[in-house]
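Dear all,

This email documents one entry for the complex benchmark we are building for the journal club exercise. For each entry we list the sequence lines for every component of the assembly. Then comes the predicted three-dimensional structure of the complex as a C-alpha cell string, followed by one or two observations. Please use this as the template for your own entries, and keep the labels exactly as they appear.
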Amino acid sequence: MSIQEKHDYPGLLIVCEGIDGSGKSTQLHLLKTWLQQQQYDVFFTEWNSSRLVKKTTKVGKKKKLLTPTTFSLIHCTDFADRLEHVIIPPLKAGMIVMADRYAFTAFSRDVSRGVNPDWIRSLYDFAVRPDLAFYFRPTLETALGRILVGRADLKYYEAGMDLGLSHDPIESFRMFQERIMSEYDEMVDEWGLEVIDADQSIEEMQTQVREKVTPLLKSRKLRRG
Amino acid sequence: MEDLELPGKLIVIEGTDGVGRSTHINLLHDWLEKIGKGVLVTGLTRSPLIGSGLQAAKESKYLGRQTMTLFYATDFADRLEHEIIPALRAGFVVLADRYMYTLIARDMVRGADPEWLRKLYGFALVPIAVLYLNVDIDSLVPRVLRAGKLNYWEAGMDLGLADNLFDSFYIYQSKLLSIFEGMRREYRFSNINSKGSIRAVQNRLRKKIEGVFEE
C-alpha cells in the first residue's frame, strides 16, 4: 500500500486540510451530519489523537523537547497508530472515514519547520491515499481574524515559536501560517487537492463540498445503517 | 543528514544480543579516558521524550509494528539531537552501544520495507566508524545460555517462529545475523572478530579506534 496509489478498500476516505481558522472542522462536521442523515456509516478521526502516542506528544510539547525532526516523527507515529486502528478497519468494512487533517498537514507544517520535503513524503508513504481531499483556502487575514478573536492565548508549537520567527506569539503565528499556506498551495496539483475558497460563507462552502462528495457516494457500495 | 562541523567523533559498536558489546564498551570507555579523551557512552535505552510513553504503548498490546518502528525512530532522533550531537559539538568521543542499524535490522526481521526504513533514518548522522562484533550463530548460543540471557524479545518470541524459547532464539538470531551481514557490506562496517579472549577482542577494537584517530 502506498499514498501514491488508489486504494481498493470498499470504503471511502475523505479528508480536509487547511490552516488554522480556515473553517475546515465546521465543514467536515456539517458533511458528517448530512451523510449520517442519509444513513451512511461514518467514522471520524482527528489529527494527533491516538491514545497510545498522546502521552509522549504531551511530554514533548510541555517540556519543549521537540525539534523539527522529532516533531515530525511523533506525529507520524500517531498517524500510523490511527491508520491501523481507526482508518483502515472502517475502510475495510465499507464505511466512510472522515479525517480532520491528514498527511498533507505534516507535509505543509513540517516543511515549514525546515524538515526536508522528500523525507517527510517518504515517511508517510504507507498512508492510504484519500478518495477526496479538500483544501480550505481562506485569505490569511480571514483565517487570523477567526483564530485570534477572543483567543489570544496561542500555544508554543501552534504559534511556531520553536522557529524563532518572532518573539511576539501573534506575529510568529501569522508568519508561520503564511508559510504553511504557501506549502499547501504547492501541493494542490501534486496531490489533486480540491480547493474550496474559504472566504465564502459556511453555507456556500458546504454546498460545494456536498457537490464534490455526491458522485463518490454513487461510485461505491457503501454501508448504510 | 548534512555534514555538520563537529569536532567530536561518533564511534558505533554494533553486534547482536549477547555478543559482549557492553563489556567491551566499558573497557573502551576506561581506556579512552586514560588517554585523555572526553567520552560519552550512549545506548538504545529510552530517551526522556519517549521513555514512559513507549513503555505504556508496548504494554497495551495494541501497538502495531509500523507504529512501534516510528516510536523507536522518534526515540532515536531525540537521543541523537539532545545527547549525541551536543556531545560531538563539545568535542567528545561518543561511543554508541548500537545505532540505527540495530533498529533497522529488528524491523526488517519483522517484515518492514527495507527501502522505507532507510529513508526513515535518513536524518541520522553518519558515524566515523561502525565496529561490528561479528559472531556466528553456533558460537552465540552457548554464550547467551551461559549468561542466562535467553529472553522473550531477544528470542523474537513476538514473531511466532517456534513454540519454545530456544528454537525461536536460534531462528530469530540467525535471521538477524544475516541481515547484519548485508548491512556490514552496505554501510562498510569494520568487521571485528568476536572470538577469542576479552583482551584479544578489546585489542582489535582499540587498534581500529586508534586508526580512526590518526585519520
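Observations: Residues 3 and 127 of chain A are 5 Å apart (CA to CA). The radius of gyration of chain A is 17 Å.
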